[in-house]
């Protein structure tokens, strides 16, 4: 089970994701985030610091959102990725697809 909250941080739409990003929650992530990619926000940051697990469905949702961001002229970034998330992105060859940053 995952939870999603959205806030604005200096004009950046930040989606905080907590819990498991998997087959049970990837659709909810898409439903929560896709409208932000059509909003005035030029950057959508997915704060994944509290993601405890990610499977292929979760990865697929991230790839889909990244492509939609590119198509919409937006930037999609991962914020505060924990080691398990960066590891799975590296293992799957997707690390370079997602710019990352950390909170200051």
Short description:
32% of the residues lie in helices and 36% in strands. It is of the alpha/beta class.
Question: What do these coordinates show?
Answer:
By secondary structure, this protein is of the alpha/beta class. It contains three helices and five strands; from the N terminus they run ββαβαβαβ. Strands 1-2-3-4-5 form a five-stranded mixed sheet, sandwiched between helices. Strand 4 (75-79), helix 3 (83-91) and strand 5 (100-101) form a beta-alpha-beta unit. Helix 1 (26-33) packs parallel to helix 2 (56-71). The termini are far apart. The model has no long low-confidence stretch (mean pLDDT 93).
The rounded Rg comes to 12 Å
Q: Report strand order across the widest sheet.
A: 1-2-3-4-5
Summed over residues and divided by their number, the pLDDT gives a mean of 93
Distance between the termini: 28 Å
Low-confidence stretches: none
Note the total helix count: 3
Name the overall outline. Answer: globular
What percentage of residues falls in helices of 4 or more residues?
25-40%
Structural class: alpha/beta
């Amino acid at each position: 089970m995952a939870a999603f909250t959205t806030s604005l941080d200096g004009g950046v739409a930040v989606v905080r994701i907590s819990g498991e990003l998997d087959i049970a929650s990837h659709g909810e992530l898409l439903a929560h985030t896709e409208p932000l990619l059509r909003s005035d926000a030029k950057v959508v940051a997915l704060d994944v610091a509290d993601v405890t697990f990610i499977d292929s469905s979760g990865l697929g949702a991230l790839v889909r959102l990244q492509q939609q961001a590119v198509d919409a002229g937006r930037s999609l970034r991962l914020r505060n990725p924990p080691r398990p998330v960066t590891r799975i992105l590296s293992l799957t060859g997707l690390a370079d697809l997602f710019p990352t940053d950390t909170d200051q």
